[in-house]
Structure formats: C-alpha cells, structure tokens
Design goal:
- α2 packs parallel to α3 and α7 crosses α9.
- The protein starts with a strand and ends in a 6-residue tail after the last strand.
- It is of the alpha/beta class.
- The chain folds into two domains: about 120 residues, 3-Layer(aba) Sandwich (Rossmann fold); about 100 residues, Winged helix-like DNA-binding domain superfamily/Winged helix DNA-binding domain (Arc Repressor Mutant, subunit A).
- It is built from nine helices and eleven strands.
- It comes from Nocardioides ginsengisegetis.
- InterPro entries: CheY-like_superfamily, OmpR/PhoB-type_DNA-bd, Sig_transdc_resp-reg_receiver, WalR-like, WH-like_DNA-bd_sf.
- GO terms for molecular function: phosphorelay response regulator activity; transcription cis-regulatory region binding.
- Keywords: DNA-binding, Phosphoprotein, Two-component regulatory system.
- Pfam families: Response_reg, Trans_reg_C.
Amino acid sequence: MAQRVLVVEDEEDIAFPLVRTLEREGYDVTWVDNGQKALDSLTSNPVEVVILDLGLPDFDGLEVCRRARDAGYGGAIMIVTARAGELDRVVGLDYGADDYLAKPFGLAELQARVRALLRRTTSANGSAAADQAHGEGLRIDVAARRVYAGEDEVPLTGKEFEVLNILAANRDKVVSRGRLMADVWDENWYGSTKTLDVTIGRLRQKLESVGVTERVVAVRGVGFRLEGGPSDA
C-alpha cells in the first residue's frame, strides 16, 4: 500500500509540481488549500506525512499543526514556509512539527526529507508490537538531542525532548509543573500551562507507541514523574 501524504498549500503554482513530484515517487497524495480542509482530511483520511504551509487563507498553519496534535495526530508534520526566521522555526517545532523547510526549496531536498520522516515514523510504528511484548528501555543521547527505544529512534520535537530529558534526569522523582515551564519554555512564558499538558500528552503517546518500559505519570496538583526502566548511563 502506498504511503500517504497530505499537502496543505494554497498556492497552486507551488502545490501542483509538489503533488506531481510526490505522486511520481509512488506516494498517495491528497492536496487541500486551507487549514479547515486539512483538519477535516486528517479526520477522514489519515496520512503518514503532512506537508504544511504556514500562510493559509483561513488560519495560520501553526494553528493547524497545534489542532492536529491536540486531536491525536501522530504522523510526521513538515512545515514549509517563506518565514525563514529563527523564531518561526522554533515556534513551529514547539507546536508539534517534526521538520521545517524554508521557501524557496528544491524538490529533491523536500523528497529526501519526506523519506527521512517516513523512515522515522515507520521505524517507530513498525517496532511497536515487538517492543510491547518485552518492553524497551529509553536511551537518551543528550549531545545529539536524540532518544532511542532499543535500537529505534523515537521522533520527538524540541520541547518533547527537553521535557523528557528533565524527567529522566530526575527519574522516579516528581518534577513540578512550574519547574518544567520555567526550564523548557522560560520563566517569562505568558501562554497557558495547557501547552505543557499538550506536550506531555504527545510525549506519552510516542513512548507508548514503541512500548518503552518508562511511563510519564501525572501527580495531581504537583507535576510529573518518569517511572520504570533503568537509569540512563
């Protein structure tokens, strides 16, 4: 069965060649031109990868990304945008995107990134049944900012990695919500703490999907604790 890609792009002169290129690569491609259609499509027609433009006519692509993750979408999201600034890149990853490509981009580079995202998600999902049978411990490579379950990499966003790294460094101890917000977002964060809950929810989903022995447990009114598994070396 062909792997499925959703292209969310309102500019036809960008969308058409992109769709044709991906179809020639053998992907089953759906194209929509606004954010609401993207969310509706993800509900009715799940895909492995979303290629998401930020400058959509109805609402911002970052909002599409956030709503998709809040609704439980666990596939890969790659943002493509003319906003090449560092702030937009970081914000996009914080909202749950897995990769970021600035316009103008070469189709060959985009194809390579799609293949890389599919390898990561397929590896994580394909190993779930075997891992759940016997469980895998987490291995965190802090220098490379990468996380592994056994030999398979767990694809995490920047904020998911930072939250997990703090919890792992304090394994079996409760880390307060306030500390996580201050250390991961910064003490001057003005947004809702629901951002932390969304990030924890996605992190749990990804860890459970590969059957790791560790679990992120909520301690009501206090914070979160990472339980189970060996201590990281």
